[in-house]
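Supplementary Data S3. Sequence and structure tokens for construct A.
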Amino acid sequence: MTLYGVGLGPGEADLVTVRGKRVLEHADVVYSPGRLSRSVALEHVDESKIGDLDFPMTKDEEKLRTAWKAAAAEVAPRAMEGDVAFVTLGDPNVYSTFGHLRRTLEAFHPDVDLEVVPGVSAMTAFATALGVEVEAGAGLSLREAADGASPTGPGRMILFKVTDIPATHEGLVEAGYDVTYGRRLFMEQGETAVTDDPSELEERDYYTLAYAEKADLVVESATAAFERDG
């Protein structure tokens, strides 16, 4: 009798891990917090096993706490009687809605056994989608860039929730960064885009990230000598 937080990966059904798929197939009920995670879960389980939870789109903390308490009250008794999965895009412990449910359960239903099944996160899959190598010893900072924010400082950053690309781009370029954008990477829902032209992605989309690298950054890997010798 366990509640499993299952990471579904960035959105393509075949990027769910083997362990995650096994847990979904074994669970008595699979709870989904949203439409996109639900659609991925349905590639692995029958719709009759899906349980939807209602989370309001608001920043009102009182409404959010009420919603999470209601979700925990729904999930807890099911997890005490059998195995339950709560699915989320990406990884359950990386900027995920699952963290709110876990903390609420710990506060009000501490007897629920909990296990996390990690998933492929867009914050790691970006390297493949954008053709970026994060080599051994490299420094890479993860930052949020919603509503036009353009955090600066490290030589290389991965920014997520880039909802106002023109504003974010302006700030990053002024700070000396070269920027590449990726939208809906490895997602079956919506159109995938990779570009260094911010004008191509002016429409707001929550599932947009950016890779920013200082224009004057010098990275010398050990195997670079092979190119000179060749």
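Construct B, processed identically:
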Amino acid sequence: MRKFAIAAIAALSIAGSGAVYAQYHRFADHMRHMRMNPEDRAAFVDARIAAVHAGLKLNADQEKLWPPVEAAVRDFAKLRIDRANARMNAGPGDSDKPEDPVARLRQRADDMGATSTALNKIADAADPLYKTLDDGQKRRLAVLTRHQGPFGGEGGWHHRFMEHRMDRMMERGMDRFHGGDRDGGPDRDGGRL
């Protein structure tokens, strides 16, 4: 009886965690595809900066080191918001990406250069403050900036995008293992596994 109870609890835990995981990803997908207006973007930046600042609970000496960090983060956020607003305002045929692939590479390189410069400014501004943080403050900083924004690197959205792509690839692989693609059609090679 005890083994049955342990097995039942394990089965419920596994099933429950899968349901929670699926629910989270549905919500994350919805949020990722939601278009924010410029005011919303600015409000979220303000809220995130305020949350990090409040969560760090800086002492008086550390507080003096905060303004350059905040200014550098705001500059980086403005760069990203301006790019997002430009994409949002572009019409279907009004893309800011040139047709020429070499020109697109140059534009991407310029964008990456601007991002690199902005991230380096954050690093330069944050370094003196970071060196004064105690272990608790560093732990809170890591949690407050995990996979998001300039403290956690630009990899936040990229990480979630890649995680989503990997999930989709895994789902497709499992669908093929179970006898075909999601649409019930044949696999790419024309047959079924």
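Residues 149-160, 174-178, 180-193 have pLDDT under 50 and may be disordered. The radius of gyration is 23 Å.
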